[in-house]
Amino acid sequence: MLAVADLKKSFLSPEGQRVAIVGVGRFALAAGEQLALRGESGSGKTTFLNLIAGILAPDSGRVTIDGGEMTGLSEPKRDRLRAEKLGYIFQTFNLLQGYTVLENVVLGMSFGPRGADRGHAREVLGRVGLGHRLEHFPRQLSTGQQQRVAVARALANRPKLVLADEPTGNLDRKNAHEALALIREVCREHGAALLLVSHDEDVLKEFEVRKDFAEINEALKEPAR
Ligand SMILES: Nc1ncnc2c1ncn2[C@@H]1O[C@H](COP(=O)(O)OP(=O)(O)OP(=O)(O)O)[C@@H](O)[C@H]1O
Ligand SMILES: [Mg+2]
Predict the structure, then answer these.
(1) pLDDT single digits (tens) 197-207
(2) N or C: which end of the chain has fewer CB within 10 A?
(3) Atom of ligand 1 nearest to the CA of 213
């Protein structure tokens, strides 16, 4: 479902030095697999997910999602591949502020394979406990509620691959457990693969399969160039 090969990304520091952030040799996820990556703050988890999603272009290397190669595509084609195959729960939500909760989810669907389906969007928002907040704008929600909108938007398209970046970081323990259970259940229902990154041991311990991000991310062992 997901294959990553020799993926590298570095950034220029404000001092003008090139700093290697991501350097993943081989990483793969099978259809339906659920994996949690543990990594401390600043270790490059979000950068890694943005590379997989084609939001960032790597310095070198390849990302293949369900047979389609994300790297090497033009930006519009990357956007299309992302919309067709991926559900991305962003660490910072990335909700559209000028649109209601329902519209955020419907708009997300309109680029995907199922098209805009208000009924399904309502149903998914109901499942994340926001059935009574459909007409609210993001700024009228609590941070945890905004996070749940982000979860609903990512899952509504029934994507083949779900990327979850600290998806319960703003929820209390009970809501975090419930949101995580829902994400995993929806992925199982549709045979989607799930890749979650987190530094929260409470979240990580719910996964049978966990890996240390630093272990797959060998760039951190390289001296900065
Ligand atoms: N656009 C950028 N320009 C320069 N440096 C960047 C840029 N984006 C990220 N970095 C650096 O890359 C490192 C990894 O950032 P990233 O956001 O991937 O970490 P993270 O593991 O997701 O952290 P957290 O757990 O706090 O979310 C950080 O040191 C950050 O300063
Ligand atoms: Mg991050």
Answers:
(1) 999 999 999 99
(2) C
(3) 21
